[in-house]
Amino acid sequence: MSPEVLAFSKEAQAELESILQAYPTKQACLLPVLHLVQREFGYISDPVAEAVAGLLDIPLAVAVEVLTFYTLFARRPQAKYVIQVCRGLSCALLGQEELLVYLKNRLKIKEGEMTPDGLFELKTVECLGGCGESPVVRINETYYELQTIDRLGSVLNELSKGPKREA
Ligand code: FES
Predict the structure, then answer these.
(1) Number of domains the chain contains
(2) Full-model pTM
């Protein structure tokens, strides 16, 4: 374990301590700690995963299994905007494929790739929990429901106006 790779800000350290106190065992803290780590560092690298496993006294394989199971955890630096297109049944029936084709053509990337300027990254994910408002696209923490190519195009136009990456 290399604890120095978990060099948290003061706020994150306080949050870590409150997570550790809120759960009955260290192992039970894995998911909230991973969320915290991702918020703090932007992604969870191998050395960080190892440090988390050490911190929580769990085998590294368990931490890696959780990290690879949940699509919301990133293992490498992410684009400024991570676009997640829902591929669940409801969205599939209501136009998800057209949205995905549109995004691939507009951004000139495939699923799992990032635009060269680091602005957008494209993923497909399982049900985003908004089936009644399908098709649903999530960009970072924001959910865009009842999406059409026109609506999504407007969202991308707005997002494209900002700086490419946050410092
Ligand atoms: S199937 Fe897309 S939100 Fe549920």
Answers:
(1) 2
(2) 0.73
